[in-house]
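Curious: why these numbers?
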Amino acid sequence: MKQYIGKLVQLIYIDSKQQVTIRNVQILAVGEHRLLAYCHQAKGVRTFTRSGIVDMEVIQWKAS
């Protein structure tokens, strides 16, 4: 997963409350169980558990 550092990706993510969200994030750091990313929806840095990531795809961000 370290190959995604610095890239913009779209995550399908299940959080601790079992809610599914789709997020566009820029990966900042990758650990064994978590990753740190800037979330464009939340407009801030967030931590995501690797086990909660259902799917991940590199995307190209288009500013609106």
Remarks:
- The mean pLDDT is 92.
- The chain has one domain: 2-58.
- Residues 24 and 54 are 14 Å apart (CA to CA).
